[in-house]
Amino acid sequence: MDKATGRAALGALKEIWALLTKLGVTSTIVSALLAGALTVWSYVRGMQPPLIVFIAVATFCVIFVFYNSARLVFFRFREYPDYEAWDIVQDLAIWQIACLWAKQRPYSVIHAEKKAYPLLQMLKNDIDRGILEVTVPDSTSMWRKISRARLIEYAKKKNEKPPFLFPRER
Question: In the chain, N or C: fewer CB atoms in 10 Å?
Answer without folding.
Answer: N
